[in-house]
Design a protein that fits this description.
Blueprint lengths: L7 E6 L3 H16 L3 E4 L7 E6 L4 H19 L5 E6 H13 L5 E2 L5 H7 L20 E5 L1 E2 L10 H5 L3 E2 L2 H13 L4 E5 L8 H4 L4 H9 L6 E4 L10 H8 L6 E3 L7 H6 L6 H14 L4 E8 L6 H14 L3 E6 L7 H5 L6 H24 L5 E10 L2 E5 L10 E5 L10 E9 L3 E6 L1
Parallel strand pairs: 1-2, 1-3, 3-4, 4-5, 6-9, 9-10, 11-12, 12-13, 16-18
Antiparallel strand pairs: 7-8, 14-15, 14-17, 15-16, 17-18
Bound molecules: iron/sulfur cluster.
Iron/sulfur cluster (SF4) binds next to helix 5.
Length: 434
């Protein structure tokens, strides 16, 4: 229902959880300026703001299609104003202004204040660090830095987001306290590169100190780390993880490849030997820890031998969670400028499939081993007659889920329950409340 004089704003978020956090900050600013704000809504709104992604070609395509869809509504006067911000807009502002001119204004990733002022609001400094949460009440993301100082040859992020900018520890502790007051039990730390946290502002890695302080906050049940970087991994993080029960024994560490030649072409700053040693180190220090990684196949110059090294590594490391991407040439990156995208798409695809087949076997074996065991599970949602939850070893959206049957008892979303695993498939577990 439209309330007289109050404008309705629909904020649409594309891309990753880092974008979602930016949308949430924007939404709170808009609400405090008297707008009625919805997120990814199908309901009518006078103003639409699209937060775009410009990471890889598929994401760019999705962002452009979404802008075109709303440009059409703008053209038909079904919406009054259309604004676009985020990574795609940061990277291709001038082209977009020319190609899709009916958008009222394009903004970059750091232009939140301008965006708010453009729709007639005032940016409120006192609200920095607070957000209007779009995630279920029991979990939230906490972005600890922006940008990236690495020079990975295939990646466009540093071109879009610029240099690494850590947020001070005190600010992050304050934001975490705000989230916990809102009822959040699980905080997921995100950044382009968690491992680099602190080096820019404190001149030394500070991730371990940050997680130590956050894990001390009363009411925080789970603290999860996403996107660490393998080269010069700050090992004191593991020391803290070992002694803090509320830090999930979960490490998301994208290794991308294993062949020395490809790692060097990718400019990852690490060798095959060091990568093997790092995985062995994790396994030795915290045997129950779950490792998640992502791999990139089909980078220019990847031969069958390079790929076979990767296959051997996947079989060795037995990552509990693993995702594979195929190389896509990103404009102005080091790889795009210096290498020819010489691997046919069909080969990239078959290499990806081969690794995923191996991973399916690994994951199935690990899951089957859990049958008969009990786990603490947080309940995320209800689907039909089932509840869907996760163990500490699984993150949102990307990992395994636990399908929980509870015929006798209604479960509360966001609560923890002990669940006994009764059966398993490749990527999910099925269990019953104990
Ligand atoms: S660490 Fe590498 S892959 Fe990740 S955002 Fe930075 S440059 Fe890109």
């Amino acid at each position: 229902m439209k309330t007289k004089g109050i404008k309705r704003v629909n904020v649409i978020t594309l891309g990753c959880s880092k974008n979602l956090v930016d949308s949430e900050s924007l939404m709170l600013q808009l609400e405090s300026n008297g707008f009625r704000v919805a997120h990814d809504s199908n309901k009518p709104a006078e103003i639409v703001i699209i937060n775009t992604c410009g990471f890889i070609n598929d994401a760019k395509k999705e962002s452009i299609e979404t802008i075109l869809q709303y440009e059409d509504l703008r053209n038909k006067n079904k919406i009054e104003k259309l604004f676009v911000f985020g990574c795609l807009s940061e990277r291709y502002k001038e082209n977009l202004e020319k190609e899709i001119p009916l958008v009222d204004k394009y903004f970059g990733v750091y232009d939140l204040k301008d965006l708010i002022e453009s729709i007639g609001g005032h940016f409120k400094v006192e609200l920095v660090g607070e957000r209007s949460l779009t995630t279920p009440k029991h979990y939230a993301y906490l972005k600890i830095s922006e940008g990236c100082d690495r020079t990975c040859s295939f990646c466009a992020i540093p071109l879009i987001k610029g240099k690494h900018q850590s947020r001070p520890i005190e600010d992050l502790v304050r934001e975490a306290e705000f989230l916990i007051r809102k009822g959040v039990k699980e905080i997921i730390l995100i950044a382009q590169d968690l491992s680099y946290y602190g080096i820019d502002i404190y001149k030394e890695p500070k991730l371990s100190e940050l997680i130590d302080k956050l894990s001390d906050l009363k009411g925080l049940k789970w603290l999860r780390l996403h996107y660490t970087f393998p080269a010069k991994f700050p090992k004191d993080v593991i020391d803290v993880m070992k002694v803090k029960p509320n830090i999930c024994k979960y490490m998301d560490i994208p290794v991308q490849h294993i062949s020395d030649k490809i790692l060097s072409n990718m400019r990852r700053g690490i060798t095959k030997k060091q990568t093997y040693e790092l995985i062995e180190y994790f396994r030795k220090e915290i045997p129950e820890m779950v490792l998640r990684t992502t791999l990139l196949v089909g980078h220019p110059g990847e031969t069958d031998e390079d790929f076979n090294e990767l296959v051997e590594f996947v079989r060795f490391a037995k990552f509990e969670r693993l995702g594979v991407f195929t190389y896509s040439e990103e404009e102005n990156t080091y790889s795009a400028i210096n290498f020819k995208d010489d691997i046919p798409f069909s080969i990239k695809q078959s290499r990806m499939d081969e690794i995923m087949d191996i991973q399916r076997e690994i994951s199935n074996g690990l899951n089957v081993n859990k049958i008969g065991k009990s786990f603490k599970v947080i309940i995320d949602r209800k689907e039909g007659d089932y509840y869907v939850g996760r163990t500490e070893f699984d993150s949102l959206d990307v990992d395994n889920e636990v399908i929980v049957k509870s015929e006798k008892k209604n479960l509360r979303l966001g609560n923890f329950y002990n669940v006994k695993i009764k059966s398993a498939d490749d990527f999910d577990l099925i269990g019953e409340i104990e």
